[in-house]
Amino acid sequence: MATSLVAFQGERGSFSEEAAYKLLGRGIRVLPCETFTALFESVASGRARYCLVPIENTLAGSVYENFDLLLANNLHIVREVSLRIVHNLIALPGTARKDVRQVYSHPVALAQCGRFFAKNPKVKRITYYDTAGSVKMLAERQPPGAAAIASRIAAEVYHANILATHLEDHRENYTRFLLLTKTARVSPKANKVSIVFSTPNSPGALYKCLSVFALRDIDLTKMESRPLRGRPWEYFFYLDFVGNVKDDKCKKALAHLSEVTNFLRVLGCYESAKR
Amino acid sequence: MATSLVAFQGERGSFSEEAAYKLLGRGIRVLPCETFTALFESVASGRARYCLVPIENTLAGSVYENFDLLLANNLHIVREVSLRIVHNLIALPGTARKDVRQVYSHPVALAQCGRFFAKNPKVKRITYYDTAGSVKMLAERQPPGAAAIASRIAAEVYHANILATHLEDHRENYTRFLLLTKTARVSPKANKVSIVFSTPNSPGALYKCLSVFALRDIDLTKMESRPLRGRPWEYFFYLDFVGNVKDDKCKKALAHLSEVTNFLRVLGCYESAKR
């Protein structure tokens, strides 16, 4: 995997890029994409071998657009990584902490650093389209007295300095990412399965689906629902469970599930992220 | 309810205002609020008697922020209404359909009218912060050759004309709204219950919760999950089911559910929207 091209969404220096290095090491080549749609397309078209997709944050919840894109694209989940989101105060060389008068970042990052701004009431928050993009802007335009809030990788990419770290209010701030590629493969270490299904519109349908797992003592780790377009008030369900699709128990559970669903697709079987 | 003050999010003329009239008639007084947080606050503070909150759209999915606000605020769901989202092309008197060169609207509304723009390639899309707000802007600034995409109520409020209707690509585009107030009440016609709960972090916990309903043939209509802040990878579950909290079967189901959950709150019991 070392020299593969790995696509991510956002500017160079994003948290997605940090997660890619955590999962695959520093030897990879990276391809920034502007939107999540372009991110999935980069792999579907063969331009990149892998893409790393944020799927869930422990404060903000699921990245719902990416659940929809998992269904719309025929890519396979092959790895997972969980990254602790550490917000850093970043400025260009020559700007000291005491000089900082404005801080640029994405509105979600600014909102997650409320205590820092409460303690520094003279520092103005300025919303920007991207965390790493705000460091890039500092490097390009060099506004005086300006800093940004972004990942430590952003400081490295744009040759800037970290003036302070752990600006985030909540330490329990993690984002989970999925690594996708065109060809399904199941490692022997794989211990987690992601599926998507829809049920007949009848009472107890979802309960029947979950019984497939409960009756076999299979542990569910996450469930999500998304609307079924064109069928108002019906849903696709996304489920993660503990297991390996090559194990007998898991094979039987999926066969049983296919009896009680209208539609069923395995999105991937992969090694669960260390948490 | 006729002369009660009903708060909604957005500018005058929003789809929320249209939904309020559908549910409560034209006799109500309305209070526009800038954000969803301010919307909940308007009722919590006693400024408005009711607020009408969009909770789910059949194309875009749940309005997740409002699930979080239902939990954070101690308001009660007393009614529900489902509104078909019809996008209209709206311009000021004096601007004919053939004069339209730019169309302003919220990016979601513009995205939902893709076929209209494909058929009219010379018409430029311009994103604006709000659907009704774009009609308000036309009335204030009178830009030449401009139109907006918004609700029919927006045309009425800003004395503009509807040049074309049903611009939306998908006819099956509905938004479901909840009416909230400070005091819980259950009408005899109530046939739907909304609850929120969290489960112990043990295998099969969610299955046990759903069995409470399945064993009593109680039909679930919607399930949603949101992250439990400070407890990574744990969730609050939001559930809607058919029933009335004063019925014996429903009382027993809720008592049973409280045995297998850590936390349980009834958000409201109300008459289900006609669909």
As a percent range, the share of helical residues of chain A equals 25-40%
- Rounded to an integer in angstroms, the radius of gyration calculated over CA atoms of chain A is 21 Å
Please tell me the overall pLDDT of chain A.
95
**Most extensive interface, residues per chain?**
A-B, 36 and 35 residues
For the report, how would you describe the main beta sheet of chain A?
6 strands, mixed
**SSE topology string of chain A:** EHEHEEHEEEHHEHEHEEEHEEHE
Give the tags.
Alpha-Beta Plaits; 15 strands; D-Maltodextrin-Binding Protein, domain 2; 5-stranded mixed sheet; alpha/beta; 9 helices; 275 residues; 6-stranded mixed sheet; homodimer
